[in-house]
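Write out this protein's structure.
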Amino acid sequence: MKKELNEEFVRELSKKKNEPKWMLAFRLKSLEKFFELDNPDFGPEIDIDFTKINYYKSNRKEIANDWNKVDCSIKNSFDKLGVIDAEEKYLGGVTNQFESEVVYHKQKVGEDVIFTSTDEALRLYPDLFREYFNNLVKYDENKYTALNGAVWSGGSFIYVPKGVKVDRPLQSYFRIETESLGQFERTIIIVDEGADLSYIEGCTATQYSTASLHAGVVEIYIKKGAHCRYSTIQNWSTDVYNLVTKRAIVDNNGVMEWVDGNIGSKVTMKYPSCILAGEGAIGNSISIAYAKEGQYLDAGAKMIHLAPNTRSNIVSKSIAEGGGISNYRGTTRITKKAFNCKANIKCDTIILDGISKSDTFPKNIVGNSSSVLEHEATISKVSQEKMFYLTSKGLSESTAKELLIMGFISDFKKELPMEYAVELNRLLKE
């Protein structure tokens, strides 16, 4: 397909995917909004040459459910990442996306659970898809939701029926191996009344000298009494702009948990959100952002209390070294009619040298006198005294620093699935 992003490109993409007319109209409307909107006026500088981004690349003819039917080079990439091993040992289903399309999908959980690629969901479940698509994250919210709307491809679609407890996690893994590629998956998750789901997302890319772009959109719907945990470890290479929008809406007594790890990328702007729309709804977010040389990670969470007796909890851990910048940016809003709500925010930062930086940008709003919001923030540097104490016990300087970091993020590690906690240990040692 042609590389230039214009109406002709979008029409060709939609035709290639054999989409209905309404989706083409949506894509064209999104494209127009993308050209209208500017970059965000807060956070990191975004310096992307959109004429150099490859907006679509496909490496498959159909989705395989057997690794022996996947191209050997692609299979080897996922094998080296440990994805195939994790599928066999821990997971109830997987979707693996390579470049712009899902190349492998397999489901072990019951047939009553819908778990497929988003492209396949549009074809197989058109009414259900249209009910939830672009309903929670609107295409015109910002420049990158508009871009996603215009060129989205791949992602996961999950529907868990009423009362169904998915006993093993479902996972999606996103991989980029092409220079200057844009990846624009669209994920939609619906957890119906009383149902339970644990979902894991992994992201990596090969390092190149030119910028790549990841601009995904995630929409999650938590019905009455349902529960969803969404765990992410992204380790994009340091040439990737990671600009995503993730949001959940939670009904009465539902629970949404974001477990969000940000290790890689050149620039990250990501603020997983919960809209607590039903009475007794709960939203939790625990995250880490570890910025090293050349990285600017602007991450956090948003909790919007719309209903009475709702609760939210945000825990943010930021680490910066080598001149990296790691910020917390978040919003907690308790609206006027959301009585008897409670919100807690805790932001902790550790700076490992004298050239790195971390800032906190909270926006906390309480609209009534019966609710309580608490915000606590700490920042510290690794002192020479601590390092001297540990090295005097026979530890090397690198081992001593590693111990301090692992202790600092212990709360986050406890929330991860076992295999991801092991992976996090490996990434932090690199």
